[in-house]
Amino acid sequence: MEDGDMLHMIVEQTWEYPMRMAYDPEAKRFVETEYESLPHRRRFTKPYGWIKESGTPPSPHWDCILMTDRTPALGDEIEIRVIGVFKRSDLDHKYVAVEASRGICDLSELTGEERAELNRLYPQADPGEGWFGKKEAEYCMEHHPKAL
């Protein structure tokens, strides 16, 4: 992925929904599941979804966290720049993005408050897991399979 390449995030989960939301591709709508939302349980207020160009759930796709102060609605499509990744040993990585209009390019440029919020989402990491910047995110996108 080149520096100027923009991607798009589809919003699947927001702070407003304490239960996990899932996309139903046949009905083309979001439905509430029986499961508690992990971000909500961990007081993570940022939108969560997937990178449109990677596929659509339940098919393989890349999960995405958007570091924004906006409050988008489920299904909103937002132009993004990937700035980092939470690498997982099961390869179900979580890509960190900002709105394309925001002037930062790497995870290290987030505010201390934003980094603290990310750490609330995944407070522990197994060996080989953790938060990494843009270069590692690009490597993962190029070399690792998409997750279900």
From TrEMBL:
<dbReference type="GO" id="GO:0000287">
    <property type="term" value="F:magnesium ion binding"/>
</dbReference>
<dbReference type="GO" id="GO:0005737">
    <property type="term" value="C:cytoplasm"/>
</dbReference>
<dbReference type="InterPro" id="IPR036649">
    <property type="entry name" value="Pyrophosphatase_sf"/>
</dbReference>
<dbReference type="GO" id="GO:0006796">
    <property type="term" value="P:phosphate-containing compound metabolic process"/>
</dbReference>
<protein>
    <recommendedName>
        <fullName>Inorganic diphosphatase</fullName>
    </recommendedName>
</protein>
<dbReference type="GO" id="GO:0004427">
    <property type="term" value="F:inorganic diphosphate phosphatase activity"/>
</dbReference>
